[in-house]
Amino acid sequence: MLLAVAIRGYRGSRIGSLTEAQ
Q1: DSSP string over 1-22
Q2: pLDDT per position in the chain (22 positions), as tens?
């Protein structure tokens, strides 16, 4: 399930960046 983990990590980092930007 490495694919799912990679997607979660990617989306998580994206959401974190958006949150910090706001």
Answers
A1: -HHHHHHHHHHHHHHHHHHHH-
A2: 788 887 887 887 777 666 666 6
Query: Which amino acid is residue 7, in one-letter code?
Result: I
pTM score, two decimals? 0.34
Question: Pseudo-torsion of CA 11, 12, 15, 20, nearest 10°?
Answer: -150
Three-class secondary structure of residue 10 per DSSP: helix
* CA distances from residue 16 to 1, 5, 6, 20 in whole angstroms, order as listed: 23, 16, 15, 6
